[in-house]
Design brief:
Residues 184-198 have a biased composition (Basic and acidic residues). The chain is mostly helical. Helix content is 78%, strand content 0%. It starts with 33 loop residues before the first helix and ends with a helix.
């Protein structure tokens, strides 16, 4: 078909160009023709029909995969929870053992402290008794010193000289006689002190 008219709308041989290649006067952008609109709508409908049309087998497989994935995630979560619970229980047991060990140590220390306190009380009582004994001995020594001074004034001689003479005399005696003499000499001062005390 040859149509005379605008040279921009005709081919060199005078025929019309295909409608799909018809350009705007600017020549920069493609213009959709009537046939292109029908073609595009058919393609869109076919794509939509393909995407929306799901076979029962595919749907079943997809559901099974979803269920399998869900079960797998649930199993992993349960495994993680079980492992976490196990670790928590182990940590609790370790802490409980440490607490019991510390409690036993504290108990032993308290028992030792109580025993030491009792020993300290006993030692203080012993020290008090010893102090009383020392005080009593000091008083007795003072009494004996006073009596010795009185005896020295009575005899008119120093008691140390008398003791030296007695020792020299005992060295020349037999052992048996020496023992008898020592007992007699020891008895005499006691009797004299007793009489003096009376």
């Amino acid at each position: 078909i040859r149509i005379k008219g605008d040279p921009n709308l005709t081919m060199p041989d005078g025929t019309l160009p295909p409608l799909s290649h018809l350009a705007t006067p600017e020549g920069s952008k493609r213009m959709n023709t009537h046939t292109d609109q029908f073609f595009d709508s058919d393609m869109k409908q076919s794509k939509m029909s393909v995407s929306n049309a799901t076979s029962p087998k595919y749907a079943k497989d997809r559901d099974s995969e979803i269920l399998s994935l869900r079960d797998s995630m649930k199993a992993r979560q349960n495994s993680y929870n079980a492992e976490a619970a196990k670790k928590i229980e182990e940590a609790k047991e370790a802490v409980f053992e440490r607490i019991m060990h510390s409690a036993n140590i504290v108990k032993e220390v308290l028992q030792r402290n109580m025993s030491l306190s009792e020993d300290i009380v006993k030692n203080n009582e012993i020290i008090d008794n010893l102090n009383q004994d020392i005080f009593q001995l000091q008083r007795e020594n003072e009494d004996l010193r006073e009596r010795l001074e009185i005896l020295e004034t009575i005899t008119g001689k120093d008691s140390s000289i008398l003791l030296g003479k007695l020792r020299n005399a005992n060295q020349t005696m037999d052992p048996d006689e020496q023992d008898d003499t020592i007992e007699t000499e020891n008895r005499k001062p006691r009797e004299e002190m007793k009489e003096f005390g009376e």
